[in-house]
Write a structure and sequence with these properties.
heterodimer; A: mainly alpha; 77% helix; B: alpha/beta; six-stranded mixed beta sheet; five-stranded mixed beta sheet; 17 strands; elongated
């Protein structure tokens, strides 16, 4: 939210009046999209079982987000997709995967809405939905335009990110050896004379990357964090020895305390024993 | 990385593995896409934490002042305004910002907690809070939680922005702000008895009905004849009445949370009577005593003297470092909570490693030990302890209890339970308290002139069996013609009357409260009997009744009568 020298309330990130009116629709669309994709899976499954599984997965949306939806889709692919099939390898496959990941993102981004809806009574949630459907929505045109442009920008950024992710995954899968070619690839690599050089380069590159990552994370630490990190590393290395020293000191202190108490008790007994006897 | 991201990564890795094994292109692509998505989100989030958190700048003003120190009043509302500035170039991450407030401050409607996006130029949020008790108030800074849109990653940071305030005790304005007009306001010399000039000042204040004990020469005979009843001339007294306050700050008066401590009740009554006395031109002094010893505040008049007294009460109300000898789970949990609140970056697993531990086997005990390791590391880092001392914190309970309590005190929390378990140190059974109070009374008597009112604010209800140790000092004070009033605040804020001992319902809390009131009533009856027998007055509450009792004693001292009945 862009704020130019303005005061904001603590609810600044909660939906504005313009967007909050659509929260009911958003909840419905999250549930509908999840139900839609779940009903597309496993067409040979019976309806009662399908409804049962769908209900269970919907109940997990609030806490688990899209995890169970992903598991369901993966399970469907695992059981239904034939090995070495070319059906999902081209642009169609990328588009389907893109849609599935976009759905996962959509569910995760609106998880807060689901949590809020779960806290409210059912009647108020239904009321929200009814309000949205009856078009009893009021707009402040300036704010609405601002909100629409913000949401559009966020959606485009998210889509671009997902397209990039799917594309990179596709490229990576194309580069990696598969089960059929791995033996030939390995044999060729072993017989290749330049493999030693490649291996050395790979190793050097990995070490360099590790050093760079480590250096970046070290530079990001605050002074106190860096001190604590060094302290923790030192303690981890010398933990056994230091623990032995500390326990030894504590035992010694306890023994000295015990002995002191015994000495005091003995001294008291000695004093009482030395008292003169009562004489009549 | 949150649990959600971990749970999403797990099926993705499993799916990728199975997809490679079974050569299922769709499964592989979906799983790898999810993993790449998580990786990209992590990279973006790391960059946001690194860049956007650096751009966030804060400026806090309390009651319109941004200075690092100042003065506040207990019981009054405080307006806090926080101005945020950030870079407009940020990516708009979700940022939860909380102005961390100490226990001595109660925020209305949780308005100190805001959620925003990091992409703005400048913004302001305001909230109101009430300061609960006198002492010190330390606003440490801002706790920041940064999240990504999906809830996959979360980073917590603390940005210090320290402001420290002296909190003066609250007081109640009683009666007229300027009730008396005095021509001479100097203390009489030693040996000049107040009875020689009691009520016979130079200015006529009012005429009132005759009360048995009024001096006959003050009777207005002409007016009495006109009205057919005896009337007395009331004169302004020109003899100042010196008020000497004795305030007990021992362990028992400091526990219970800010605003609910016995010390807060005593501060309120003491400040109110001091204000009333100083308004009448009477000098007010104080003797402050606790386990650390005795501190004397010389008697003074005027606004300057009043504020000097309030400053002293405020400093006295700051809890000193306690000496706990017992470590409790609650102490550890509270210290961990405060550490997570104010030093979240030091609790991160990447910097605060816990060594490999095989024992204890029980998962619950194991996790508690790991938590203690992490807390010990934070405390060791904050107090610059050696690694050996750090490990000693883990295995030495008294040492950990001492440091944890000290850490909590410094973070603005009131004392916790283990401090009152200290037995065999004198203050628990009241003997040490009686001794130090006796010596304070004796010292005050040695430095006193005539016409003084001694007001003792002490938690005497729990020390009734040891009251005989205090009696000689009280008798000495009374023998020197001073007045003594005791104000013993009750922990329930209720005067233990017959009505208060009746349970309002059969709920456990009400029954416990009634039982406590019955016990208090018995103790109060014994205390009042013992003290009134020798001529002292007692109030068992820290409310306006106690203020009026002290003021009535001052009024009696001013008129020179021994009691309201008129015995002189």
């Amino acid at each position: 939210m862009n704020l130019q020298d303005s005061s904001f309330s603590p609810t600044v990130l909660e939906p504005t009046h313009e967007t909050s009116q659509f929260s009911g629709l958003l909840i419905v669309s999250v549930i509908a999209s999840a139900v839609g994709i779940l009903f597309l899976l496993a067409p040979e499954m019976g309806w009662p079982l399908r409804i049962f599984v769908t209900t269970i997965i919907l109940l997990t949306l609030k806490y688990w987000g899209s995890v169970m939806v992903l598991v369901a889709v993966q399970a469907d692919l695992f059981f239904r997709e034939p090995p070495r099939s070319a059906a999902l390898q081209g642009v169609t496959g990328m588009l389907i995967v893109f849609l599935i990941v976009a759905l996962l993102m959509f569910i995760n981004r609106n998880r807060v809405l689901l949590k809020q809806a779960a806290r409210r009574p059912l009647t108020s949630v239904v009321g929200l939905i009814v309000t949205a459907f009856r078009s009893e929505i009021t707009f402040d045109s300036g704010k609405a335009m601002h909100e629409i442009s913000r949401m559009l920008g966020a959606t485009i950024r998210a889509m671009a990110l997902l397209v990039g992710c799917v594309f990179v995954s596709r490229v990576l899968l194309g580069m990696l050896p598969n089960r059929r070619t791995i033996n030939n690839d390995l044999r060729g690599w072993m017989l290749d004379e330049s493999s030693v050089l490649q291996c050395s380069l790979l190793l050097t590159g990995m070490i360099a990357a590790w050093i760079v990552c480590h250096e970046i994370s070290w530079r990001q630490l605050t002074r106190n964090q860096a001190r604590l990190y060094l302290r923790s590393v030192f303690l981890t290395i010398h933990h056994a020895d230091l623990r032995m020293v500390v326990r030894g000191r504590l035992k010694l202190r306890q023994r000295l305390d015990r002995e002191k108490k015994q000495r005091e008790a003995a001294a008291f007994a000695c004093r009482t024993e030395n008292l003169p006897e009562f004489r009549r | 990385m949150t649990g959600l991201a971990r749970w999403l990564a797990l099926p993705a890795i499993a799916g990728l593995y199975l997809g490679i094994l079974r050569e299922q292109a769709g499964l592989m692509l979906l799983s790898l896409s999810v993993l790449v998505w998580l990786l990209v989100e992590w990279l973006l989030f790391t960059w946001r934490v690194w860049y956007e958190l650096r751009q966030l700048k804060f400026e806090r003003s309390v009651n319109g002042r941004t200075e690092p120190s100042g003065i506040l009043w207990a019981g009054r509302s405080v307006a806090v305004e926080v101005r945020l500035t950030s870079s407009f170039l940020g990516m708009g991450s979700i940022v939860q910002i909380r102005d961390v407030v100490p226990e001595n401050m109660e925020v209305m409607d949780q308005m100190n907690d805001v959620t925003t996006r990091s992409r703005f130029h400048s913004a302001v949020f305001r909230y109101r809070a009430t300061v609960l008790g006198a002492g010190q108030l330390h606003l440490p800074g801002f706790h920041i939680v940064m999240l990504d849109r999906q809830g996959f990653f979360r980073a917590e940071r603390f940005i210090p922005q320290t402001q420290t305030f002296r909190v003066l005790p609250a007081f109640q304005q009683v009666g007229d702000p300027q009730p008396l007009v005095k021509r001479i306001n100097s203390q009489p010399q030693h040996g000049i008895h107040r009875l020689q000039r009691s009520g016979m000042g130079s200015e006529l204040l009012e005429l009132r009905e005759y009360v048995a004990g009024d001096p006959p020469k003050s009777i207005a005979w002409k007016v009495s004849a006109r009205r057919d009843k005896l009337m007395t001339r009331q004169y302004e007294s020109e003899v100042p009445v010196r008020l000497q306050l004795f305030i007990d700050g021992s362990i028992g008066t400091r526990t219970g949370g800010f605003g609910l401590r016995l010390l807060d009740q005593m501060n309120f009554v003491a400040a109110s009577v001091a204000k009333a006395a100083i308004s009448a031109g009477d000098p007010v002094g104080a003797m402050l005593f606790d386990e650390r010893g005795l501190r004397r505040i010389p008697a003074a008049t005027g606004d300057r003297g009043f504020h000097r007294l309030l400053d002293a009460l405020s400093d006295f109300s700051v809890n000193p470092a306690p000496i706990p000898d017992r470590l409790t789970n609650r102490l550890i949990e509270t210290a961990m909570g405060v550490a997570a609140d104010q030093f979240p970056e030091l609790l991160e697993g990447s910097v605060n490693h816990v060594p490999f531990l095989l024992f204890p086997i029980s998962p619950w005990a194991h996790s508690r030990l790991r938590e203690r390791y992490r807390l010990a590391a934070v405390i060791a880092q904050l107090y610059r302890l050696s690694p050996v001392k750090q490990l000693q914190l883990v295995y030495d309970d008294p040492l950990m209890a001492t440091f944890a309590q000290h850490f909590l005190s410094q973070s603005g929390l009131s004392w916790m339970e283990p401090v009152v378990s200290i037995r065999n140190r004198g203050f628990h059974d009241g003997l040490a308290r009686m001794e130090i109070l006796s010596s304070a009374l004796a010292r005050a008597v040695s430095q006193a002139r005539d016409n003084e009112v001694f007001v003792v604010f002490a938690d005497l209800l729990e020390c009734v069996p040891s009251l005989s140790h205090l009696m000689p000092a009280v008798k000495l004070v009374l023998a020197r013609h001073h007045r003594v009033a005791f104000v013993c605040p009750s922990p329930t804020f209720l005067r233990p009357t017959a009505e208060s001992t009746v349970s309002r319902s059969v709920a456990a809390e009400d029954l416990l409260l009634a039982a406590e009131q019955i016990r208090m009533r018995e103790l109060a009856a014994r205390l009042q009997f013992e003290l009134r027998r020798i001529g002292a007055t007692v109030s068992i509450s820290g409310e306006s009744g106690a203020i009026h009792l002290v003021l009535s004693q001052m009024s009696l001292a001013r008129t020179g009568r021994m009691a309201a009945g008129g015995v002189r």
